[in-house]
Amino acid sequence: MAQWDQMKLLVQQLQSQTLNDLYPGSFPMDVRHYLANWIEDQPWETFDVDNVDQDPQANRLRDQIVGQLMEQAHKNPNVLEKMRLQEFSKKMNTVQPMALVRTVRDVLRKERQYLGLTGGTVGTGLVGQYHSSPGQALHQPGVSPSPSPINGTQNLARPKCNQDMDNLVFKVLEIRKYRQSMHQLNEEMTWEKQDVESMPSPMQTSELDPQQEKQKRIQQLEYHYREYGKKRVHLLHETIGILKECQDWFIQRIKEWRWEQHQGTIGGVFDENLGPLQNRCEQLLGVNVQLRQEVILVAQDNRSSDPFTEMQNELGKQLKALIQSSMVVDKQPPQVIKTQSKFSTTVRYLLGEKVAAGKPIVLKAQIITEVQARSVGQEGGMASENVGELINSTAILEHNPSSKSMCANFRNMSIKKIKRADRKGSESVTEEKFAILFTADIAIAGCDAACSVQTISLPVVIIVHGSQDNNAMATVVWDCAFSEPNRIPFVVPERVLWLQMSMTLSRKFMSEVGTQRCLDENNLHFLAQKVFNKPDITEDFNTKHVTWSQFNKEVMHGRPFTFWQWFDGVMELTKKHLVRYWSDGLIFGFIGKQHLHVILQNKQNGTFLLRFSDSEIGGITIAYVALAENGIRRIQNIQPFTKRDLEIRCLGDRIRDLDFITHVYPDLPKNDVFGQYYTELGPVQPTTEGYLPTTITTTVVRGLDPSSPPSMALGGDDIQMAAFSQGTQFPVAMPQFSPNFSPSHPGAHGAPIFPHHFENFNLGNIPQNQAGAPESMLEDMLPDSIYNFDASM
């Protein structure tokens, strides 16, 4: 479901009209979602929609779609979804089969185009200043990079390239047939000429002279020989041109594969299988060798090599480019490497099956700087200065018969020391990017001489202490997310659109945590509020730009840490202790106190939700509705639980301990929802030594009671729900729930979904003496921690 995984993130950002155009009524987006795996496995591109002979296959596909929908409806426990699936199956059954095939094919093509365009233009098309690394300027005013070919129009060209490859093989066979036919014609001419020479002198008769017949036959054979020779040379020129096109596509596809591998490090879809590319590489090599032989033979037949020297040179140039482009880093080294620590990497050579027998091929590795990386692949571009000492830096290219691959495995590499460049301004060592360069001299069977082959790893950040890991990873994430496919190493923009940043954060969160549930619009909106220091929940951030400094150089407003340090802490906490809660939709996630008060204000006492703390790194807190002694309903936030807290007692048990929180937002009994996460309590038995067992529970600190919360004052007055005057119209996002949301099984889709529109709520209960409080002060008026909890018996 590679393509739909990406589209699920993108459709949240598309306008309604765009979605209607992309998914027509004859093929709704719901059908695309429910049958994503199956749809992407079908051969839609092989259909000729104008060929009536393929109607039976199209009819079979339509029936399979209907059957798949009915099967899902039968299995689905949710009544609403069951009815929708049945309705979709009836609708699909009324669509003409070939028309449905055409629609599905066009939808998949458009998806690839959208994915390609957003991959290349979002966040960079409006950027006027690019940086080679965050902080190092590389001024290119007005540069607007072209749309990325990755997963876009390049994908649409692949079936044509397959046809070109088939056409290429066919033309090589055709050239061979012309050569064989010319050889046969030449033999016939030789025999005919010998017959003419052995014939007696012609006699003066009225009959047709046999010698003249032979001469006429020889002339015909010579004519056909010349014509075949012309077609043969023409075919050679044409085939060499097609070979160049196919090889250019292959080299571009290798670059795409490397870029997809790069994106895979932050959750992008990546198919690591190199088998198809290796097969294509070997095919191209085989065709090149055959064409070189054909050029030699045609030169011999014409008794002159001069007219065909250009062909030989072109084929030699293509062969060298193919040999040098066929080395890839199959398994990348870690992108953050600590000195004196072991790591591994694997380099694969796609033409390994064709390597000339003889002495083993030794691959050498060395560390290079960003500047040195830019010269790799250029004439005389071998890195000369050694900027680091790499231990265990050589490996042998070894053939694996089972996988038909040839790889060099560097199993115990280590960086002993590193030489850093002079830094400018506020640049940190964790912003400096290096790479590992791999080189070898490789000879291919049937080729004249060995070629020097080079390839480099993805950019790596080298640290000397574990405390630098977080900031180094920020550099890696920014580089992975916002680099262009064919960039100059390792150029990235200094700023990107929030729309692009939000998609990156969601992908990274899903990848790091190991979940299929992405960050929804509410989560992303709050993240934007934090990075831009804008508390207004109605503001649209999609057109705003995020800078590298805002991402991980400047601390957030009122906090001692950067945005990335805080976000990374949340990912770490969720990955280790909260992944099931998050995947089941039980954690609301990133939400500001302003938004929190709006959605909880009318809920019954004891209603709570789980949100990530924004006051400390790696904390989750419980926000709930409580009733004070004076009868005023208030929203309180429990002191955040950190990694250490949840190692002592899990979140489910802590929620069970707190009897004053009763319903999960919006109104689900907590025991129904969290019961599966409670630790089972067996009968209490004395220990073998006679001691009575003890347990740890979460309680409110003495002196504080949920029914009597401490006062939160502004100018001496109590704050109730929010600081607004009576009658204030306040914008609030209205929650909507997906059809399969069920109290008995919230599931991954059980979390509320907020559309990007707002309605007004009247906060009529706010006392008059709180009118006029500045909105910018709201966050300060609502402290993150009201209660302190400890684990006591």
Automatic annotation (TrEMBL):
Gene Ontology BP, a term: innate immune response
Name of one Pfam family that matches: STAT_alpha
Keywords: Activator, Cytoplasm, DNA-binding, Nucleus, Phosphoprotein, SH2 domain, Transcription, Transcription regulation
Claim: Cytoplasm is one of the keywords in the record: yes
Residue intervals of the SH2 domain: 582-624
GO molecular function, one term: DNA-binding transcription activator activity, RNA polymerase II-specific
Intracellular or extracellular location(s): Cytoplasm; Nucleus
Gene3D superfamilies: EF-hand, SH2 domain, STAT transcription factor, all-alpha domain, STAT transcription factor, DNA-binding domain, STAT transcription factor, N-terminal domain
GO cellular component, one term: cytoplasm
Presence of keyword Electron transport: no
PROSITE patterns: SH2
Classification via SUPFAM superfamilies: p53-like transcription factors (SSF49417), SH2 domain (SSF55550), STAT (SSF47655), Transcription factor STAT-4 N-domain (SSF48092)
PANTHER family: SIGNAL TRANSDUCER AND ACTIVATOR OF TRANSCRIPTION
Family label: Belongs to the transcription factor STAT family.
Name recorded for this polypeptide: Signal transducer and activator of transcription
Species whose genome carries this gene: Clupea harengus (Atlantic herring)
